[in-house]
Specification:
The protein is of the alpha+beta class. The protein is 22% helix and 28% strand. The longest helix is centred in the first third of the chain and has 37 residues, at 8-44. 25% of the residues are buried. Residues 30-180 form the Peptidase S26 domain. This is Signal peptidase I. It catalyses: Cleavage of hydrophobic, N-terminal signal or leader sequences from secreted and periplasmic proteins.
Protein backbone atom coordinates (compact mmCIF):
# COMPACT_ATOMS: atom_id res chain seq x y z
CA UNK A 1 0.00 0.00 0.00
CA UNK A 2 1.17 3.42 -0.87
CA UNK A 3 1.02 6.29 1.59
CA UNK A 4 -1.07 9.21 0.53
CA UNK A 5 0.96 12.40 0.79
CA UNK A 6 -0.31 14.92 3.30
CA UNK A 7 -1.64 18.21 2.08
CA UNK A 8 -0.01 21.47 3.12
CA UNK A 9 -2.87 22.07 5.56
CA UNK A 10 -2.41 18.61 7.15
CA UNK A 11 1.37 19.10 7.39
CA UNK A 12 0.86 22.42 9.09
CA UNK A 13 -1.67 20.91 11.55
CA UNK A 14 0.84 18.11 12.36
CA UNK A 15 3.61 20.64 12.94
CA UNK A 16 1.40 22.72 15.26
CA UNK A 17 0.38 19.55 17.15
CA UNK A 18 4.03 18.51 17.67
CA UNK A 19 4.95 22.04 18.79
CA UNK A 20 2.09 22.09 21.30
CA UNK A 21 3.17 18.72 22.69
CA UNK A 22 6.78 19.95 23.10
CA UNK A 23 5.63 23.17 24.78
CA UNK A 24 3.31 21.17 27.08
CA UNK A 25 6.13 18.81 28.09
CA UNK A 26 8.45 21.78 28.68
CA UNK A 27 5.83 23.54 30.86
CA UNK A 28 5.19 20.35 32.85
CA UNK A 29 8.93 19.96 33.45
CA UNK A 30 9.15 23.59 34.55
CA UNK A 31 6.27 23.12 37.01
CA UNK A 32 7.92 20.00 38.45
CA UNK A 33 11.23 21.85 38.93
CA UNK A 34 9.45 24.77 40.64
CA UNK A 35 7.52 22.40 42.92
CA UNK A 36 10.72 20.54 43.86
CA UNK A 37 12.45 23.86 44.55
CA UNK A 38 9.66 25.05 46.83
CA UNK A 39 9.65 21.65 48.59
CA UNK A 40 13.43 21.77 49.09
CA UNK A 41 13.44 25.34 50.40
CA UNK A 42 10.49 24.76 52.74
CA UNK A 43 11.89 21.48 54.05
CA UNK A 44 15.66 21.85 53.95
CA UNK A 45 16.45 25.51 53.44
CA UNK A 46 15.31 27.14 56.66
CA UNK A 47 18.26 29.14 57.90
CA UNK A 48 19.23 30.21 61.37
CA UNK A 49 22.24 32.07 62.67
CA UNK A 50 24.25 30.83 65.63
CA UNK A 51 24.44 33.69 68.15
CA UNK A 52 26.63 32.26 70.90
CA UNK A 53 29.56 29.95 71.60
CA UNK A 54 27.51 27.16 73.21
CA UNK A 55 28.01 24.67 70.37
CA UNK A 56 31.78 25.14 69.95
CA UNK A 57 33.64 23.54 68.26
CA UNK A 58 30.83 22.02 66.12
CA UNK A 59 29.20 25.39 65.43
CA UNK A 60 30.65 28.82 66.02
CA UNK A 61 29.19 32.25 66.71
CA UNK A 62 27.73 33.77 63.51
CA UNK A 63 27.70 30.49 61.57
CA UNK A 64 24.67 30.41 59.26
CA UNK A 65 23.15 26.93 59.27
CA UNK A 66 20.30 25.23 57.41
CA UNK A 67 17.60 23.19 59.13
CA UNK A 68 15.84 20.09 57.87
CA UNK A 69 12.26 20.59 59.09
CA UNK A 70 11.05 17.41 57.40
CA UNK A 71 13.25 15.15 59.53
CA UNK A 72 10.77 15.37 62.43
CA UNK A 73 7.81 14.63 60.20
CA UNK A 74 9.48 11.59 58.63
CA UNK A 75 10.97 10.15 61.82
CA UNK A 76 11.90 10.89 65.40
CA UNK A 77 15.04 12.80 66.38
CA UNK A 78 18.01 10.56 67.17
CA UNK A 79 20.63 10.69 69.87
CA UNK A 80 23.48 13.07 68.94
CA UNK A 81 21.34 14.97 66.40
CA UNK A 82 22.06 18.70 66.46
CA UNK A 83 18.66 20.42 66.49
CA UNK A 84 17.13 23.88 66.67
CA UNK A 85 14.69 24.13 69.57
CA UNK A 86 12.27 26.88 70.56
CA UNK A 87 12.27 27.60 74.27
CA UNK A 88 8.81 28.89 75.15
CA UNK A 89 5.38 28.81 73.55
CA UNK A 90 5.33 31.90 71.33
CA UNK A 91 6.80 32.39 67.86
CA UNK A 92 9.06 35.08 69.33
CA UNK A 93 10.52 32.75 71.96
CA UNK A 94 14.29 32.24 71.74
CA UNK A 95 15.65 29.54 69.47
CA UNK A 96 18.67 27.52 70.58
CA UNK A 97 20.77 24.99 68.73
CA UNK A 98 21.60 22.00 70.94
CA UNK A 99 22.55 18.33 70.75
CA UNK A 100 20.08 15.61 71.74
CA UNK A 101 21.54 13.17 74.25
CA UNK A 102 18.45 11.74 75.96
CA UNK A 103 15.47 10.16 74.18
CA UNK A 104 11.85 9.64 75.32
CA UNK A 105 11.47 7.16 78.17
CA UNK A 106 15.16 7.21 79.17
CA UNK A 107 16.70 8.40 82.42
CA UNK A 108 19.57 10.86 81.98
CA UNK A 109 21.99 11.31 84.84
CA UNK A 110 25.21 13.30 85.01
CA UNK A 111 27.58 12.12 87.73
CA UNK A 112 31.33 12.21 88.16
CA UNK A 113 31.52 14.43 85.06
CA UNK A 114 29.94 11.84 82.76
CA UNK A 115 26.52 11.31 81.17
CA UNK A 116 24.65 8.11 81.91
CA UNK A 117 21.61 6.91 79.98
CA UNK A 118 19.67 4.30 81.98
CA UNK A 119 22.83 3.71 84.09
CA UNK A 120 25.04 3.13 81.03
CA UNK A 121 27.79 5.66 80.31
CA UNK A 122 27.29 7.64 77.10
CA UNK A 123 30.44 8.44 75.12
CA UNK A 124 30.43 12.10 74.13
CA UNK A 125 32.54 12.28 70.97
CA UNK A 126 32.04 16.03 70.49
CA UNK A 127 33.69 16.99 73.81
CA UNK A 128 35.88 14.82 76.02
CA UNK A 129 36.03 17.18 79.04
CA UNK A 130 34.35 16.12 82.27
CA UNK A 131 31.04 17.90 82.83
CA UNK A 132 31.52 20.29 85.73
CA UNK A 133 27.87 21.10 86.45
CA UNK A 134 25.19 18.39 86.31
CA UNK A 135 22.28 20.74 87.06
CA UNK A 136 18.91 18.98 87.30
CA UNK A 137 20.46 15.79 85.89
CA UNK A 138 22.55 15.24 89.03
CA UNK A 139 19.93 12.96 90.58
CA UNK A 140 18.65 11.69 87.23
CA UNK A 141 15.98 13.06 84.92
CA UNK A 142 13.43 10.58 83.53
CA UNK A 143 12.02 11.72 80.19
CA UNK A 144 8.37 11.49 79.23
CA UNK A 145 6.94 10.04 76.03
CA UNK A 146 7.73 13.07 73.85
CA UNK A 147 10.61 14.57 75.81
CA UNK A 148 14.27 14.99 74.89
CA UNK A 149 17.31 16.01 76.94
CA UNK A 150 19.57 18.46 75.09
CA UNK A 151 23.09 19.56 75.91
CA UNK A 152 25.45 22.28 74.68
CA UNK A 153 28.60 20.95 72.96
CA UNK A 154 30.62 23.44 75.03
CA UNK A 155 28.84 22.29 78.20
CA UNK A 156 31.34 23.64 80.74
CA UNK A 157 31.20 27.23 79.49
CA UNK A 158 27.46 27.24 78.71
CA UNK A 159 24.48 25.89 80.61
CA UNK A 160 21.53 27.00 78.48
CA UNK A 161 20.36 23.43 78.01
CA UNK A 162 18.24 20.78 79.74
CA UNK A 163 20.38 20.99 82.86
CA UNK A 164 18.70 24.29 83.77
CA UNK A 165 15.30 24.30 85.50
CA UNK A 166 14.27 27.26 83.33
CA UNK A 167 14.80 25.20 80.15
CA UNK A 168 14.43 21.58 81.27
CA UNK A 169 13.49 18.78 78.95
CA UNK A 170 12.43 19.63 75.39
CA UNK A 171 9.06 18.50 74.09
CA UNK A 172 9.04 17.11 70.54
CA UNK A 173 6.90 20.01 69.29
CA UNK A 174 9.61 22.47 70.42
CA UNK A 175 12.09 20.91 67.96
CA UNK A 176 12.08 23.05 64.82
CA UNK A 177 14.36 20.79 62.79
CA UNK A 178 17.69 19.07 62.49
CA UNK A 179 20.70 21.25 61.73
CA UNK A 180 22.34 19.63 58.71
CA UNK A 181 24.57 22.16 56.93
CA UNK A 182 26.84 25.09 57.74
CA UNK A 183 26.13 27.50 54.86
CA UNK A 184 28.49 30.28 55.79
CA UNK A 185 31.13 31.41 56.25
CA UNK A 186 32.31 29.54 53.16
CA UNK A 187 35.49 28.47 54.96
CA UNK A 188 33.29 26.35 57.26
CA UNK A 189 30.85 25.07 54.60
CA UNK A 190 29.93 21.46 55.34
CA UNK A 191 27.61 18.95 56.97
CA UNK A 192 26.93 19.08 60.71
CA UNK A 193 27.66 15.94 62.73
Amino acid sequence: MRKVPLSKKQKRAEKIKKTLIHVGIWLLGLLIVIALGVFAVRGFGIKTVIIDQSMNPTLQNEDVVLLNKLSNKIGSPKRMDVVAVRIGASENSPTYVRRIIGLPGETVQIKDGKVYIDDTELELTFNDAAIENAGVAEKGETLGDNEYFVLCDDYNNNRDDSRLDSIGTIDSDQILGKVWLIRSPLSRLGLVH
